[in-house]
C-alpha cells in the first residue's frame, strides 16, 4: 500500500514543482509596469496672501483636538496636471439670508488678504456657504480661508459635496472636525486647526460632485462665522 501511495505522489509533486517554476520564470521575464498616472502628478499651485500674525496666544483655551501651528511652510499637495480653480464663476448661496450677493461674490474674487474688506460675516450658530459648480466635476483639492487676521480656531468646520442643491442626493463628507456632533452632521474625526494665511488645504481625492457646502460654527474669537476665500481645484467629471 505504501509503495502505491508513493508512486502516486511522485507525478503530483513533479507537476506542482514544474508549474511553480513556470510561474517564477514568467514573473522574472515580465516587463516592469510604471505606477498608474505617476507622471501626471504635479504640485498644486497656490497663491498665498501675506501672513498677518506670528505664533499663537499662550492664554488661548484650546481642546486636545487642535493641531499645533507649524513653523514650516506646508508641503505642496500633488495633484493631476491641468486642474483649474472651479470656484470663480460658480453660483454662491448661503444659509444666512441677510448676506447680499455682492458680499458672497468676495469669496471667489481672488482677494485673500487679512483685511476687514476681504472678509464676509455670517450670523451666529452653524451656518454654511454653498458653491454650485454648474455640472458634475472631479474635485481633487479644496482650500478654505476663514478670517486669518489673528490667531483663532474655527469650530465645526465641515465640507460636504452632493449631486443636488438640497444635499439629499449622494451627500458625502470630505472634511469634518465637529468631534462632538454639535452641528448635527455626524461625529467628525478631523482635527481643529489654527487659521493662517495658508488656508485649510483639503485633499478631496477626485470625488465627483456638482455642489459643495462649507459649514462652520464660530471661532475662539467670535460667535460669528467669517469667510475670506474659497478655492476648488478639479476638472469636468467623465
Secondary structural class:
alpha+beta
Span between termini: 66 Å
- Supply the number of helical segments: 2
Rg over CA atoms, rounded to whole Å, is 26 Å
Helix content: 10-25%
Order of helices and strands: HEEEEHEEEEEEE
Percentage of β-strand residues: 25-35%
Mean pLDDT: 86
**What is the CATH third-level topology name?**
Jelly Rolls
Condensed summary:
The chain is built from 2 helices and 11 strands; from the N terminus they run αββββαβββββββ. The protein has helices at residues 2-29, 101-104, and strands spanning 41-43, 78-80, 84-85, 91-94, 120-122, 127-145, 158-162, 172-176, 200-216, 225-227, 229-236.
Q: What would you note in describing this structure?
A:
With 238 residues, the chain is α+β, with helices and mostly antiparallel strands. It has a single domain (39-67, 74-236), classed as Sandwich (Jelly Rolls), CATH 2.60.120.260. It is built from two helices and eleven strands. The strands form three sheets. Strands 3, 4, 6, 7, 8, 9 and 11 form a seven-stranded antiparallel β-sheet that branches. A two-stranded antiparallel sheet has the order 1-2. The N and C termini lie far apart (66 Å). Mean pLDDT is 86; it is low at 1-38.
Task: Give descriptors for this structure.
alpha+beta, seven-stranded antiparallel β-sheet, globular, two-stranded antiparallel sheet, disordered N terminus, 13% helix, single chain, 238 residues
